[in-house]
Every structure is written in C-alpha cells, then in structure tokens.
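Table 4 source record.
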Amino acid sequence: MLPFPEQHREITQQLLNGKFILDHDELYAPIYKDREMYFDFFKRTFDYELVVTADYAYLKSTNEKDKNSRDFLIFLALLCRELDKDGKDFKKEIETESFLVEDITTFLSESSKRKEIIESTSLTDKNRDVDLITFLNEWQKRNLVQYVGNSKLKFRFTKAVGLFFDYAATLANEKLKEETTEKLQN
C-alpha cells in the first residue's frame, strides 16, 4: 500500500465531488508534492486525469456531457459578452473584479442573447428563472466563485475560472479549424 498523506481521504472526496483545490488551500500542498502518485491513483482507480497547475488542482473526466460545467461555461460566455459589449476587458474584469449579484442579475436579464443562451442551461426551469444565488452557491462549493464579505450579495471568480477561458479558447480554435477545412474542401 502506498503511503498516502494524512489528508488523502479529504483530498479524494473533494476532487471526486468536482471541487477545485486552490493553491492557498491546505490540501493543495500534499497534492502538488505527490502529484505523480495522485495522477496515477486517480487514473488507475477512477479513470480520471488529475490536472495540477500552479494555481489549482482538479479532476478531468471523459464525460463530455457534464451539464454543470456546460451551464457555467454558458453563464461565463454570456457575462463576457455583456462586459465586452460595454467596452470592458472582460477577461481582466472576471479575473480581478468583484460583482454584485443584483447587478449581474439585471445585466443578464437585459441581455439580447439571454433567451437563446440562458434557456439552454439549468438557470431556467420551465420558463422560470432559477435564483442566481442558487447557481452561484453550486460553484462556490466547487471553488470557482467566492463570496465577498459576510453576505451573498457580492462575489468574485477564483483563479480556477482560467480553465474555462482556456476551454472556450480551445473550442473556438477547433471550430475555426473545422470551418477553414470545410471552406478548403468546397
């Protein structure tokens, strides 16, 4: 049996529950230190890939139908679109600024793309908006969102949001390659 760190059970539970373990979390150091062992452990035991960056660790599965991640990506894309439309550097805003829940709710409800984008996510339930706080709470549990202060009126994104920017860029590049290939074939 491998000599697992003292926090092994908690590390395993958090990662399997879809949580990002951030670099300032006490569980990050043992993962980072034993990343090769953990990579092997998660691959052999659960067929998941452990990804460890300088800022966070998470598990990557082969499940491409992860509705929660898709919903977060759609929410983030809509927020980026609205920030960009207002002339803001959306990536910088998302990575560094805090947002008032009330402002984001208003922002999203006034978006011209809201209906076609948000209705394809779990943010709607039979034409009734699901509370943004409920949505954010789910992502707070996974360390993608942190509330600022003692209330749930203001939030910010953690460094783990960078994964979604990277994923979106990869998807966009793949789509551009497909379109270019189709044009060349025609």
